[in-house]
């Protein structure tokens, strides 16, 4: 069987490895624009800050590793089109036939039509090449003031990196809070306060209308000119759908797939940032542009091609980050989004400590849990704290994936030791607060 993968990022690289484990004889070819296989885009801000020394350090495996698995690599290669009738992929280096085709074409940074956005000193943060350009610019021009457009995950992590390098950082966001798709205003305020204490300032409900100078020297916010020596555009990403659309596949926000990750052509699969899947809370189509989702999609697609009855489950989009030592974890629906969607909810919130009150060194933690009133099920959570957020958000996400109710969380068996956690865990206390709203 000839299996061709278009895209050498997280989804494409992992698919190739999963597929090789399942089928030792398949002819697997990976076609990618970049010269390397999988690297971690989430690590890129840490390369800028210097926490990770070199851009090349975020490459997961060298190309030779895949070649030793008898995976054919066509890197530095552009796919021009897909001929579904002849079952060939047309590239700038010739045609590649397939029996099964996997589109792992990812996403691209969305750059809004701001005047001057093409000027020197204006960057996106999506690829290794982006990081190399930013680091070279910083080394050459030694910028003192950075403006970040967009307060999502990439924007905030970029802002942290610039602040750690000693820059004065301003984040400009059109919405009324940071991380607007992941946090409600109350939890976002905690993150904002922490970042402000580390020298990052914010302007909400405003946008940058112009970038002035090349190299950049200022940005225009409304009619005000704000000095800037470097600008990062972090206004989200868009799924790469052009190739699929030109091939006549069903496309919406992303490439439409079924539960097996097959497109409208059953011999073509789509995985990773480009694939449009199902939201676990609303049942509507959504994008799940997370590295963890890309790996799970890769596994499901490989298993299905190998003949297993594998399905990709609806997503809660569980995510976590750390900013200046503050951990932020989130999944599912926010309170604001639930109201807009007409979902009646019960919310529980608890502010406490990560350790018992009598034990020194405990750090503040805020847990917010969201339950659907109609069936009492957990459908969202937000946790912000100084430590051990990861384990708690993972626990709540796992419970939600198994259909846990408010009572399941209230009476959850948890672990206790004074140096690690209190006898009554903050997640169960938050659930107790929500339970009261059902009575």
TrEMBL record:
Coiled-coil ranges per UniProt: none
SUPFAM superfamilies: FAD/NAD(P)-binding domain (SSF51905), FAD/NAD-linked reductases, dimerisation (C-terminal) domain (SSF55424)
Species, as recorded: Thermococcus radiotolerans
Domain of life according to the entry: Archaea
Family: Belongs to the class-III pyridine nucleotide-disulfide oxidoreductase family.
Record's protein name: NADH oxidase
Residues in Pyridine nucleotide-disulphide oxidoreductase dimerisation domain copies: 324-423
Cofactors demanded by this protein: FAD
Tagged with keyword Nucleus: no
Flavoprotein among keywords: yes
Molecular function terms from GO: oxidoreductase activity
Domain FAD/NAD(P)-binding, chain residue ranges per copy: 1-281
Keywords for the protein's UniProt record, in alphabetical order: FAD, Flavoprotein
């Amino acid at each position: 069987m000839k299996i061709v993968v278009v895209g050498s990022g997280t989804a494409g690289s992992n698919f190739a490895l999963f597929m090789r484990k399942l089928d030792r004889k398949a002819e697997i070819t990976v076609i990618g624009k970049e010269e390397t296989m999988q690297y971690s885009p989430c690590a890129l801000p840490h390369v800028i800050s210097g926490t990770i020394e070199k851009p090349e350090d975020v490459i997961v495996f060298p190309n030779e590793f895949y070649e030793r698995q008898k995976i054919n690599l066509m890197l530095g290669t552009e796919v021009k089109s897909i001929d579904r009738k002849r079952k060939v992929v047309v590239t700038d280096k010739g045609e590649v036939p397939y029996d099964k085709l996997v589109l792992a074409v990812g996403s691209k940074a969305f750059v809004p039509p701001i005047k001057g956005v093409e000027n020197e000193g204006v960057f996106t943060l999506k690829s290794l090449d982006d990081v190399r350009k930013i680091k070279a610019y910083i080394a050459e021009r030694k910028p003192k003031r950075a403006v970040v457009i967009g307060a999502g995950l990439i924007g905030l992590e970029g802002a942290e990196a610039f602040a750690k390098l000693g820059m004065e950082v301003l984040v400009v966001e059109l919405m009324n809070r940071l991380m607007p798709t992941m946090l409600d205003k109350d939890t976002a305020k905690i993150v904002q306060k922490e970042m402000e204490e580390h020298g990052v300032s914010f302007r909400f409900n405003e946008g940058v209308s112009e970038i002035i100078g090349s190299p950049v020297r200022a940005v225009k916010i409304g009619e005000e000119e704000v000095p800037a020596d470097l600008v990062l555009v972090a206004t989200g990403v868009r799924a790469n759908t052009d190739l699929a659309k030109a091939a006549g596949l069903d496309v919406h926000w992303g490439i439409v797939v079924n539960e097996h990750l097959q497109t409208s052509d059953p011999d073509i699969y789509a995985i990773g940032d480009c694939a449009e899947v199902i939201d676990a809370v609303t049942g509507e189509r959504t994008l799940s542009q997370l590295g963890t989702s890309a790996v799970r999609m890769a596994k499901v697609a490989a298993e299905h091609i190998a003949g297993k009855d594998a399905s990709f489950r609806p997503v809660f989009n569980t995510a976590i980050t750390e900013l200046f030592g503050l951990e932020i974890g989130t999944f599912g629906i926010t309170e604001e989004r639930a109201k807009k969607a007409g979902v009646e909810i019960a919310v529980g919130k608890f502010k406490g400590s990560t350790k018992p009150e009598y034990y020194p060194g405990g750090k503040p933690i805020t847990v917010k849990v969201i339950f659907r009133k109609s069936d009492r099920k957990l459908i969202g959570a937000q946790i912000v704290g100084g430590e051990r957020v990861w384990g708690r958000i993972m626990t709540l996400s796992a419970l939600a994936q198994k259909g846990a109710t408010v009572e399941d969380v209230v009476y959850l068996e948890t672990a206790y030791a004074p140096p690690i956690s209190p006898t009554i865990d903050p997640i169960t206390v938050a659930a107790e607060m929500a339970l009261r709203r059902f009575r």
